[in-house]
Write a structure and sequence with these properties.
Blueprint (H helix, E strand, L loop, with lengths): L3 H21 L4 H16 L3 H26 L10 H29 L1
């Protein structure tokens, strides 16, 4: 079962941390999604599979929202417009993996505390 409040909080945390991390050069979206995945994995209080599922969910949707924001508000020239799709796919895959790892770590942390 999906814990909707935890996922919504995770989306917000992932987007905010990814934007802040991108502005200061701190690993970009991967770090933000990892931290958000850990927080959501901790909040769902389930087993490791449940935390991983929630972390993957925020990784997918968070990366797609960030890609949409970058396309809408970013200044993409016509020369690099062809590479935006490739970069978006790579960013989504990275966010899925980082969100899953963060969710698993958060669910393990909730068992230890």
């Amino acid at each position: 079962m999906i814990n909707c409040p935890a996922v919504i909080i995770g989306f917000i945390i992932a987007i905010v941390l990814s934007i802040i991390g991108g502005m200061f050069g701190l690993f970009g979206s991967g770090f933000g999604v990892l931290i958000a995945g850990a927080i959501v994995g901790f909040m769902v209080n389930g087993d490791i599979l449940n935390g991983t599922m929630h972390g993957t969910l925020i990784g997918i949707v968070g990366a797609l929202i960030l890609a949409l924001l970058a396309i809408l508000f970013g200044h993409v020239s016509t020369i690099i417009a062809l590479y935006v799709g490739v970069a978006t796919v790579g960013s989504v895959l990275l966010s899925i993996v980082m969100g899953a790892i963060g969710g698993a770590l958060g669910s393990l942390l909730s068992r230890w505390i």
